[in-house]
Amino acid sequence: MAAFSFAVLISGNGSNLQAMIDAIEKENISGKICCVLSDKENAYGLKRASRAKIPIEVVSNKDFETREDFDTELVKVLSTYKPDLIVLAGFMRILSPKFINAFTEKILNIHPSLLPKYPGLNTHERVLESSDKIHGITVHFVDESLDGGPICAQSSIQINTSSVKELEEEIHKLEYELYPKVVSWFGEGLLKLSNGKVYFENSELKIGGIDEN
Ligand code: GAR
After folding, report:
1. Measured between alpha carbons, how far is 145 from 43 in angstroms, rounded to an integer?
2. Could you write out the DSSP letters of every residue in the chain?
């Protein structure tokens, strides 16, 4: 059987991509990144990919009139690599059914909040404004909604700061721990999505997925 291979989609810094590259290097993920695709040609994550000798692709939505046309091109480009999994890591576009259906049950996303709380942008600011006591991250399979789809795993922290920057740093640390783990579970066949339900070692996960705390 061919080794587990996954594509990583980014729009910016790519620090979660770096966590995946490091996890492969340390053999915490058994597999390889077949390509890194960005919708922004100046995304710093592309440099990280090149440094790790991973093929890179840039597909800009500005070159397409509709979301469907953009997604058709994404599917075309990614399909040439035959990925077993699509890993969204700070890819800031909502994907259409065209894309979701091309990679059914094989798309993961990470989001910096305890979904279903705070989908969308500026999650750290919104958490602080709401005086929440805990904050965290979610890894989920992707459907057509904004930061939506069945949850695989979450990890949380107590909030002990009023600084967005500090909170973001703490949240990033959680992300770098959890996301490579979830990807490796998928690669090993431990984690899967089937008919809208998430299974871990063949047992269905209930709301909230695996709690890493
Ligand atoms: C991460 O914090 C990720 O959770 C978030 O973007 C950041 C990307 O950072 N994703 C979302 O907000 C998705 N809605 P990175 O480019 O350094 O990995």
Report:
1. 24
2. -PPPEEEEEESS--HHHHHHHHHHHTTSS-SEEEEEEESSTT-HHHHHHHHTT--EEE--GGG-SSHHHHHHHHHHHHHTT--SEEEESS--SPPPHHHHHHTTT-EEEEESS-TTSS-SS-HHHHHHHTT-SEEEEEEEE--SSTT-S-EEEEEEEE---S-HHHHHHHHHHHHHHHHHHHHHHHHTTSEEEETTEEEETTEEP-TT-EE--
Ligand 1 atom with minimal separation from the 43 CA: 16
Q: Which atom of ligand 1 is nearest to the CA of 19?
A: 18
Which of 22, 110, 126, 167 for mutating ligand 1's site (highest number of atoms within 8 Å of CB)?
Answer: 110
User: What fold does the segment set 110-140+149-213 form as a domain?
Assistant: Rossmann fold (3.40.50)
Domain 1-103 has CATH 3.40.50.170: yes
The pair of three-digit structure tokens given for residue 58, joined into one six-digit string: 């840039």
- Grouped pLDDT means (10 residues each) for the chain, 213 residues: 92 98 98 98 98 98 94 98 98 93 96 96 97 96 88 96 97 98 97 94 80 76
Give yes or no: 172 in active site: no
